[in-house]
Amino acid sequence: MTVTEKTSLVTGASGFIASHVVQQLLEKGERVNATVRSTKNKKKIQHLLDMQEQRPGKLNLYEADLLEAGSFEAPMQGCSVVYHIASPFFIENKIRDGQKEVVEPALKGTQHVLDAVQKCETVELVVLTSSVAAVFGDNADVLEMKNKTLSAEYFNTTSSVTHNSYPYSKVVAEKAAWKLYEQQPKPRRWKLVTINPGLVLGPSLSRTSESGSLSLLDQLLSGQLLLGVPDLWFGVVDVREVATAHVRAAEFPDSHGRYILADSKTHGFVELARILRSITQSSQIPKNKLPNALVRMSGPFLGLSQKWLRQNLGIPFDINNRPSIDDLNIVYRPLEETLADHYQSWKSAQALSG
């Protein structure tokens, strides 16, 4: 099989991370089968249609639904690698029914894609987009880990349907994937690698991306947090590094297990705000932290429980990202560059929708 004939499947291809994966695979000369929820929603898939035009015959679009068994079988035909990136994303305080809204779709989607993998003899590797949320639920969890450092050997054990239902959905779906991988008769036909990114920022290729990480900065850039930001800390990563990690997991035969994708130290919300303020020169972006007491008082209005605030406010931690550097040759770009590109992309999206 020549390199040019290699075909990969990317699920949820119109999404923030998946769009970059599709782009990088096409740039390598691969053929890509990409699934989207609807090929009729031109606005949502315009960037994929543009890629199709630039590389005739290299990108095929298929409709597939995470909740529909069998819908990934046709697009998977002839593929050697499956990048399962599609997953529901919700902002935690907007979730009303965790089980129905996030856990079931994440779990069923993973099961349906892997059921198709079991039936498709050509698939040798599945790269699953998980999250650091499958490693820990609240920042305080990391303080219990060895050297108080986030590491891929841990699984999130503190989240549930009622507390951090989004992280809970990520750990449930990832564990189900590992279980299905383990259940293969030996020698196993397909390998599983998971990519567990932190807060993913950077330029969006789509004008209508709904990633939760984007909505966080959206609030910041649109002046909704004028009075200050809470003392929250995030493991941050550029979307381009996340996409590269997916592609390299398939390129490098020694890739294995789980890879945390994030800077080696968490970044404070106030640091993100200050960098963006200097980039945008906007006085609408705060440069100060809100006092924790004030954030706790306003918790109920923000839909944040006291337990959540206790376990997350003012808790930075270190992150072991060495495997991504050593095994996948990931080079993390400076946060300033990610935020500058993120802002440019946000600005052009605003101009188009304005």
Question: Could you characterize the architecture of this molecule?
Answer:
The chain has a single domain (3-353), classed as NAD(P)-binding Rossmann-like Domain (Rossmann fold, 3-Layer(aba) Sandwich). It is built from 13 helices and 13 strands. It has helices spanning 16-27, 42-54, 73-76, 98-119, 139-142, 165-182, 212-221, 239-251, 269-280, 292-302, 306-312, 322-328, 335-353, and strands at 7-10, 31-36, 59-63, 81-84, 125-129, 149-150, 191-197, 199-201, 233-234, 236-238, 257-261, 267-268, 318-319. The chain has a seven-stranded parallel β-sheet with strand order 3-2-1-4-5-7-11, sandwiched between helices. Strands 6-13 form a two-stranded parallel sheet. Strand 4, helix 4 (98-119) and strand 5 form a beta-alpha-beta unit.
